[in-house]
Amino acid sequence: MELYELGLRDLQDKLNREEVSIREIIESVLKRIHEVDDKVKAFITLDEENALKKAAGLSSKESRKGQIVGLPFALKDVFCTRGLRTTCASRMLENYVPIYDATAVSRLNAEQGILIGKLNMDEFAMGSSTELSAFFPTRNPWDLERVPGGSSGGCAAAVAAGEVPVALGSDTGGSIRQPASFCGVVGFKPSYGRVSRWGVIAYSSSMDQAGVIARKVEDCALIMNIIAGHDPLDATSANVEVSDYTSFLQPNIRGMKIAYPTECFQQGMDEAVKNLVLNALKKYEELGAIIEEVSLPHGEYALPAYYIIGPAEASANLACYDGVRFGLRDYEADNVLDMYCNSRSAGFGDEVKRRIMLGTHVLSSGYYKNYYLKAMKVRRLIKNDFDQVFKNFDLIVTPTTPTTAFKLGAELDDFLTLYGNDIFTVPVNMAGLPAISIPCGFSDGLPVGMQIIGQTFDEGRVLKAAYAFEQNTTYHNIKPSLGGEQR
Amino acid sequence: MNEDYEVVVGLEVHAELKTQSKIFCSCSTAFGAEPNTQICPGCAGFPGMLPVLNRQVVEIAIMAGLALNCEIAEICLFDRKNYFYPDLPRAYQISQLDLPICQKGYLEIDLDGKKKRIGITRAHMEEDAGKLVHQGNITSSPFSLVDLNRCGMPLLEIVSEPDMRSSQEARAYMEKLRSILLFAGVSNCKMEEGSLRCDANISVRPRGQKELGIRTEIKNLNSFRALERAIEYEAKRHIEAIEDGEKLIQETRTWDEEKQITLSMRSKEEAEDYRYFPDPNLPPVKIEREWVEKIRATLPELPDQAQLRLVDNYSLPPYDAVILTLTPEFLAYFDNCLAHYHDAKTVSNWMMGELSKHLNQNNMEINDCKIQPAALARMLSLIDEGTISGKMAKSVFEEMFASGKEPDLIIKEKGMVQISDESTLIKIIEEVTANNAGVVEDYRSGKEKALGFLVGQVMKATRGQANPAIVNKLLKDCLKGD
User: Fold this and answer.
1) pTM for the model
2) Where are the domains of chain A?
3) What topology is assigned to A3-262+390-477 in CATH?
4) Looking at A129, A151, A152, A437, which residue is catalytic?
């Protein structure tokens, strides 16, 4: 196996045994990117020079102190990086260079990980296909004519294509899990508040959460050990003890109680996807888990409520892009109102504008009560549904998405269908729960993902169940062909 | 004003809270720094930045609430108030709408010896915006510059009930509010620096009518005087409109200080929809009762208590007590004088008279005054001892105010000691009477007024240093005797 195909832990072992150098690892990854990214188009910005410089700085043993010394990672371009352009895949921030690192990024840097570059996404994390990037669409390594999912599609595609072993993404309604599912990799969204949002460009502040996309569950645990935990710079960051997540990497799940909601196996489901997830549940039963069917009765209201709360928050969060202090500005305008209008019209894509308008509308006087307040009540009911189930169960399993990856352009003009991709993932964000998507099979050569949902701050058990499944299956070992021969 | 009508006033006051750092970041709150030197990516609204509440702001807001007899909320919440303006970096102001930190308070004003309670509806925490700087004025300037130093300065917006019925009451409310905030130590309340700002809601109605009239909101009231004038102007405008059968509209107006008039800014229809909603970046603030009680225990003496003390302990008139408690520094000055001098009323007279006059003339605060309280007390003792006359004291005071010198030194340097020695004075009197034989005749023939002239001559001869009471007595004796 080539170095770029290995996970973090495998690379770590090789480094410890002095079989490879950090420089070789970084060069292998960079070489792979140069070979395949023309096809995949995962990267917006590659930070090659700095990556090599950092690798050189870690050549002596004395300089190595961190938990991920010399290991490469990449970031969804929603994470602010000091001195490195951070675009959110928007024209608005095309040339924006932050003077600060997001807390999660600082923590990875402090542990001596090596940042390779910034990954493509749907503009401002709004979308489920990465086609809504203002720059270019990213392609699914399993079928280059298909989307990688989104909004963290660059992360999932890069990880699946072997361009980086691990990437940080963000997930507001499924933006880590859905692309992970489409690209056959692992996508972990922690509980709301688990990972600091400081320096992560906001879409919907009450649901945004940073997380990990990797090829292996153990790499998610390793990264979570670093990025999880209280941050005084984020008032919504939880001051709750963080476990050593690697301690949950054990395959014994005997007696674990897993629920599967009736509602997630009916409506508009792809039969193959449904059957693969049901098979996965059988696998869990074989491994000694107790499986039962339950109901999440308010799930059907989740999407409409999400598309009120998310845009409402976004309409305010994205108001700071006014052309006054940074970002795109119309310098020709001769009054401030024109400057606002022209800058924002030119800087934002259609979907972003749609959500800003939607959000502005639902917060307007006369509509607030019927839309925003009602949606907040729905949110409470959805949380209550989960709480009910978790009285008797450890975990809930659903498909991550109703279908496998769709073709590029297929849902571009049909945003309601596009929104439907997130039907199983959105309720999790509304309730602030941790969830993971792991590969559970293939349908017509395209990966299918299974979502495992846990209780708030019970990340450990989610990782444990995911690890157990991974250890007892081989889906994660199958690599995409990138348009060539399947390997 | 037309006596058939009654004016109804409610005030919205923004007080800048006295903290080391801003409300949602650690930038300094110091006034007067170079533009955009006290900012960070947080208060300047850069991508990915998050607000973290400064606990000191909550503490000070609670202190203010207690000083204003408010109920302190057990849970309060921050909301986003959305609007675009170049001085508002996030394009929303973090404020409080439904769950403010303080509610249902009041303060008492004292007007012509009559006390009146003015209700305080609510007081809430919010962040200030920055400001725009223009070359010349906003209409002629070819550009706007943005200074964000003020962004995120902590404010308490204090909203009164529409309980005031005249411009005088409104002024008294503002002055009392200011003194309470100053005594509580929660704000510097400098109107000229903008750390105390005021908007007035004004309506008029025929006397006896219960319903309120159409209301207008007046902005840009930067002094007590502007507040009074604007209310008077606006009330008159409303009454005239009603009398003329014109229709008033609910609108926001601005006070034009130069022309001394109000001008329309925007009508209710044009008013912005702020689309308030809870700020998801800031969890609800729980305020434990123990915390409130701990703060209550540290409340210093407030103006009402101080006024009672002055009236009870020193038998001062309530009017004096109100003036002496306008600021804590003024009261401290009074208290310090009394540590060195026995008569409160005399101190009060001098502080309300000469001292205030000189401070106002020089646009100074009591803290800038060079006269130490002990020195003023010493000067008053010198009058009592007869060393200087009251008249001389005024010029001594002037010199003290200008130079800060001790009164004894000034008297010595200027040879200003009062002449009370009878034998010295008799000699001078004899000279004066000898030189003014005609006037002496007049007096003796019953022209009482002539005495005044003779006293004046003695004073002149002594360059004002003769003790006038003694001169009077000696002159009378002298004129009677011969």
Assistant:
1) 0.91
2) 3-262+390-477
3) Amidase signature (AS) enzymes (3.90.1300)
4) A151
